[in-house]
Structures are given as structure tokens and as C-alpha cells.
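From the shared-data thread, chain only:
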Amino acid sequence: MSADRDSGPYVVAVVGSPRANGNTSFLVDVTLAELERRGARCEKIMLGKCHVLPCQGHEDCVQRATCARDDDMPAILDKAYAAQGLILATPVYYEDVSALMKIFIDRNYFKYEHESLLEPQALGLIAIAAETGLEETIETLKRFVALSSAGSVPTFTLAGLAGSAGEAAGDHDLVTKARRMALQMAAKLS
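Structure, as C-alpha cells:
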């Protein structure tokens, strides 16, 4: 899904899953499809398909005009920071966000050091676990947003269990929650 950012509210979904067809990605697709039906222009960024490198903690980050890492992250961050609606979605790995989502979070430090803040009108958080860690994962995402945005952002969450491949697609409750989250976000974006 890609977007023409000149018409309708621009929604970016950053997906921290290495599986393009996994449960987390599926629920993002359901959410974005509903948002598109409501007039949003949506873009889905699968971090697992991008060239993203971890932050190296450069001591002179604030003095640099651009991040020292040469990868896709600057373009990804530009899209996320331009979005009126932002969705952060991650599978739960070892009781928290995936390594890909953690790279995304850490790489926002460059923006933070340069006093650039997220300014979405609506935020969606999606966490899908096989068994446990949902609360911890959602809290990690909320802490990130609190540090990276100015003020309070209307936030909607979808946290659920889907451990085996394709399980989310067959879970009516999860699909309904994804559509409901899209409707809640769309109301804030109109």
C-alpha cells in the first residue's frame, strides 16, 4: 500500500515484523484497508523488507546534519513524522517489541536530538503475541510515543494472541478489533 500524501489524511504503518505475511502484518492490512475506505491515504512500511541498521550511539549525533548510518531509516522516519495517522505494529518477541521495532525506536534518537517531534492526530498500536508480553510491549510503544511527540496523542490499541501462522486471519475477534481501531483513528483524522 502506498500513498499520495497530497489528498486525504496520510497514515503510515511501521511494521516491526520480519514476516510479510505474518499475523501482525495481516492485522495491519485489515486496519489500513478500513482506513482507506474512509478516505485515508495509507502506506505500510515493513521494516523486515528494508535496509535498517541499529543505532550506534554516536556521541556527536546532535552536531550531525544527517545520521551517520547509511540505510533506509531516514526516509522511513521522514514518512512517519509527516503522517497524520501513525500505526506502530510489532509481534511480541521475548516479552517485548521485536528487534526491528526496537531499531526503529532507537533510530528516532536522531530526530529527538534535533528537536523534531512526531505530530500524529491519531495513533494505533498493534501487538500480537503467541502467549505473553502484550502489556509490556504496548507500554514500550507508549513510552516511545510519549518521548517522541509533543503533548497527548489520541491512542488506540489492538493487543491479542495469535501464535501460529495465519491464526489472526481466522480470529473474528481480532479482525473486528482491527476494523474498530481503524474507525476510531478515522474519526480523529476527519
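Residues 10-189 form a domain with the Rossmann fold fold (CATH 3.40.50.360).
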